[in-house]
Automatic annotation (TrEMBL):
This is Uncharacterized protein. It comes from Venustampulla echinocandica. Residues 1-18 form the signal peptide. Keywords: Signal. InterPro entries: PhiA_domain (IPR052820).
Length: 207
């Protein structure tokens, strides 16, 4: 799935260079596909207990250590849905969304204070000061590990910020006012071409 053919020439040059890089710039490439990527957002933090933790949609926010909250319409074959949390990332700049069947979808966004959130079904209730664009799926080719795909937001990885409850973290894109958050990568684990939930639970009004 990951193809070295996609690595731009400049990146290949960087990889083959013998001199160590003066700064720790992650080597990645942006696939040029116009397709949407269907992703189970999963923590990648080698050597940490958080590694491989699933990131779950819960009441309009994304968490590590909380279960997914999903809803379904009776007319739908709800028992066929796993309700696992999956997102869609478009590399065409359109932004990201929850991967759902509900018409109109559910928009993924970043709050002004950095927390990730998503809109309620049938609602475009993105907070007016939130950011919708800037999500991308990229592919990393570390020299010492296997290649992997990850989600980034405006070129950066994410943060897991503790909530005072053991093992529970809120996922942030940034958290300027906090010093207790852990930097994580969101690995883009392929979730297949179909959604896994009808809709994820979210409040209709957000503050
Ligand atoms: C998914 O969630 C819906 C709504 O809560 C529920 O009806 C359905 O049974 C769930 N599916 C599974 C496999 O748990």
């Amino acid at each position: 799935m990951l193809s070295n053919a996609l690595v731009p020439f400049a990146v290949l040059l960087a990889l083959s260079s013998a001199a160590p890089s003066p700064v720790d710039v992650p080597v990645h490439t942006i696939p040029q596909s116009r397709d949407d990527y269907h992703i189970y957002p999963t923590v990648k933090l080698d050597g940490s207990p958080l590694d491989k933790a699933l990131i779950n949609a819960n009441n309009g926010e994304l968490y590590i250590g909380k279960p997914t909250t999903a809803e379904c319409q009776e007319a739908y074959p709800c028992d066929t849905l796993s309700n696992a949390t999956a997102i869609i990332v478009s590399n065409n700049g359109a932004g990201a969304a929850m991967d759902v069947y509900v018409p109109g979808g559910q928009i993924l966004y970043v709050r002004k204070t950095g927390e990730l959130g998503y809109t309620a079904a049938h609602a475009q209730n993105v907070p007016s000061d939130a950011t919708q664009k800037g999500f991308m799926r990229v592919e990393f080719f570390p020299s010492d590990k296997s290649a992997y795909a990850a989600v980034i937001f405006h070129g950066e990885a994410f943060l897991a910020c503790p909530l005072g409850e053991e093992g529970v973290y809120r996922v942030h894109a940034f958290a300027d006012s906090r010093t207790d958050c852990t930097k994580i990568e969101i690995q883009a684990v392929d979730s297949g071409s179909e959604p896994h939930a009808y809709q994820y639970t979210a409040p209709y009004t957000v503050s």
